[in-house]
Amino acid sequence: MRILGIRDIIGPIMIGPSSSHTAGALRIASMCRRLLAGEPRQVAFHLYGSFAHTYRGHGTDKALVAGLLGMAADDERIRDSFEIAKQQDLSFTFEPRPNEPMPHPNTVCIEVTDSTGSHVSMRGESIGGGAAVITRINGIDVRLTGEYHSIVVKQRDVAGVLAHIATCLSVFDVNIATTKLFRERKGELAYTIMQTDDEIDERVAASIAKHPDIFDVRIVKSDRASEAVAPVKGNAENAGGFAAEFTPQEAAARFEELDFACGAEMLAYCEHEGIAISEAMCRRERCMLAADGVAVDNTRRYLERVLSVMRESATAPIASPVRSMGGLIGGEAAALSKLEAKTDSGTANACIADPMLARATTYAMAVLETNASMGRIVAAPTAGSSGVVPAMLLAAQDKHGSSDEELINALANAAAIGYLITRNATVAGAEGGCQAEVGAASAMAASAACELFGGTPAQCFAAASNALCGLMGLVCDPVAGLVEAPCQKRNATGVANAIVSAQIALAGIGNLANFDETVEAMRRVGNSLPFELRESALGGLAATPSACAFCEGCMN
């Protein structure tokens, strides 16, 4: 199982509109670029499942091209990637194949010819929250995530090759974390993929390539290297805080205790230690990073950056409304802000919501406006649900005076809830419907609000359960395949649901089903939803006459 950290749940910092369809697609293409011998010149993208149905509306096409051009997920040039590709002599085509089955609903196959004349074919899957995995290279099934530094070796499957690769890495003092050999038949073409704890020098690749049974060597640097305020290698003993007294080996052992498999385990730990959920999650993060020899103090600086991006994405459209890429939304946050102003001045037609809910509604709508216009946002846990958590946090700060430090702690709490949902269910709309996106975000915001306003860990989990119950079964039906309608209003609904859910929990009202049972119920409900109601733009509101008329008009 992939180990998830705070950056995987509160992040990536990215250009909208979809973490799985935009950021995840870009990550696939970025890994493809790293496997090339030269600059990409010709590329064909074959799109499957949800990718095939919604690739234009979600910016998947622009993101795939941007990834091959070497752009990061938060590069504002992504929206202009087609024009930049033409300037750099990169030709590209897209072929949707919606009726061909694939194991994962967000799948793309890429065929690339580079400037050296070499050809690479690969298959990638966007697995939610901006994460991705390469599952096939040149016809051979593999597994490459890009999360760690990796070396990909194309070889003949004969004795001695693996030992040669390991020896070369050892000579350059590179520690091997994992090794996998992928092949179709014994003795024929194979790929060895080694993940390493250390960055791999180009001299290592040159040394490995000298073996006569090795055809090609490619270094795939960790995607962490491109993250805003990325973790940096350091001495764990000097990292400070909870993990300061641990060596990497001790931190790895301690991480086993802190790698909570479910809410019950995390709650039991919090109650035993007398700490908040946010602190439990931060302790887990520190041990996870320290075990990898990474300086752990960067996590709070990362969350400071997250809060800054969230604030900008929630406030900019109020002052300067932006029309979305698809043209369905734009200006709603400014209209809501004007209604708030009427309330403050006591004029007629004032808003009926209380001040915090009114402000949270405005902020949630604003973030989705930023997202839909391909602006910079923070996926929390996804881009399609990116308005819920910041709306609650920033409204609490505006109306109740919460400090930035308190909001950062609340973000860590939200990350814990999102981590448990991701681990035991899903946060991808293509897998579980909108209950997995806005529903998960609402649960995260509810728990965070509960801790922010003095709730116990048990009350935080109760609040998260309440929020999931309130949005159980919510379908994902983006009109015209755009992350605009009904997504924007559902984010506002999500933050309202979170505030109500936290209020109920803070009153000491419990639940019949606990948090883990609720997450499992959500998972089962998501699995039972038909494909048309899971981000395909083929059902629900997307299939209404008005939505279909708009879709037909934009495709002509």
From TrEMBL:
Indicate yes or no for the key word Lyase: yes
User: In which pathway is this protein known to take part?
Assistant: Carbohydrate biosynthesis; gluconeogenesis
PROSITE patterns for this protein: ACT
Q: Name one GO molecular function term.
A: 4 iron, 4 sulfur cluster binding
For this UniProt record, the keywords arranged alphabetically read as follows: 4Fe-4S, Gluconeogenesis, Iron, Iron-sulfur, Lyase, Metal-binding
Which Pfam family, just one, is annotated for this protein? Answer: SDH_alpha
Every copy of the ACT domain together lies at: 150-222
Respond yes or no to whether keyword Magnesium is given for this record.
no
| EC identifiers of the protein | 4.3.1.17
GO BP terms: namely: gluconeogenesis
Which superkingdom is the protein from? Bacteria
* Enzyme class, UniProt record, top EC level: lyase
- Describe the reaction catalysed, as an equation: L-serine = pyruvate + NH4(+)
Q: Which cofactor does it need?
A: [4Fe-4S] cluster
SUPFAM superfamilies per record: ACT-like (SSF55021), Serine metabolism enzymes domain (SSF143548)
Family per record? Belongs to the iron-sulfur dependent L-serine dehydratase family.
User: Could you tell me what this protein is called?
Assistant: L-serine dehydratase
